[in-house]
Write a structure and sequence with these properties.
The chain is an alpha+beta fold. The chain has two domains: 147 residues, Ribosomal Protein S5, domain 2, CATH 3.30.230; 109 residues, Alpha-Beta Plaits (2-Layer Sandwich). It contains nine helices and ten strands. The longest helix is centred in the middle third of the chain and has 16 residues.
């Protein structure tokens, strides 16, 4: 069994208010790239997890990450031995752990089926996990776990992800938000929401990690149709009219900033 944990990006992310429970009320347009971490699973006598890939060393506790937690949260007869190839940087605004958990849900769904309350179980693991299970473009409200369909007219769009290799704490970025409600998410097609929307976490992220501004500036010098930070950062993305334009931009950035991480793909 093999599943890709598709990288999550926020084409728009509007923060509306701080909640009394400590979380934030948001409205976001989730989208997913056709690349990410890779999970391979086989039946086993007990649950096992093996880590591999460029960013495996960033997962200090292999039994405390969302792959293990997702496995524990779902009933399944027998065990699953999973190898996680960690290709996405950690604490990067790409929902990497949530995407990994979503891939586990798909593996269990295929092999054993999911319990009726699987949505509640997914939400308990993290606000992004429900969206990452099917990994298709959608609107997220509340903490991000209340999902709505969207007219997705951006499927197949070429996208470039770039990260300065600086981890950013989601909690720290939200804490640095100025508390101003700048208005609701636009409505309509995904392309309109993305074009007219914004990411309210960009400024607080830049205040904590100035390298985000450098990545955004570099991407804006390419032939991109949209440049924005994803989630709480520090990963930024750029959309392009063609794969050739995206690859040209990727080559230019790799030459000028060889220390930056990047991933090429298309929106699902």
């Amino acid at each position: 069994m093999r599943e890709t944990a598709y990288a999550k990006i926020n084409l728009a992310l509007h923060v509306r208010r701080r909640r009394e429970d400590g979380y934030h009320e948001i409205a976001t347009l989730f989208a997913f790239v056709d690349a990410g971490d890779e999970l391979t699973a086989r039946r086993s006598q007990c649950d096992e997890l093996t880590l591999a890939g460029e960013f495996a060393s960033q997962l200090a506790d292999p039994f405390g990450n969302l792959v293990s937690e997702a496995l524990t949260s779902l009933p399944h007869s027998g065990g699953l031995a999973i190898t996680l190839e960690k290709n996405l940087p950690v604490s990067a605004g790409l929902g990497g752990g949530s995407a990994d958990a979503g891939a586990v849900f798909r593996i269990v769904r295929e092999e054993y089926g999911l319990p009726e309350d699987w949505r509640r179980r997914a939400s308990r693991l993290g606000a992004d996990v429900p969206a990452c299970i099917d990994s298709i473009a959608c609107i997220g409200r509340g903490t991000g776990a209340e999902l709505e369909p969207v007219q997705h007219d951006l499927g197949g769009t070429a996208v470039l992800l770039v990260n300065p290799r600086v981890p950013l704490s989601t909690a720290a970025v939200f804490a640095a938000w100025d508390g101003e409600d700048r208005g609701p998410l636009p409505s309509g097609l995904a392309s309109r929401i993305a074009a007219e929307g914004r990411n309210d976490l960009e400024s607080p992220a830049i205040s904590l990690c100035p390298e985000v501004a450098e990545v955004l500036a570099a991407l804006r010098q390419t032939d991109a149709t949209l440049v924005r930070m994803s989630g709480s950062g520090a990963t930024c993305f750029a959309l392009y009219r063609s794969t050739d334009a995206m690859r040209e931009a990727a080559g230019r950035l790799a030459s000028g900033h060889p220390d930056w991480w990047q991933m090429q793909g298309n929106l699902r």
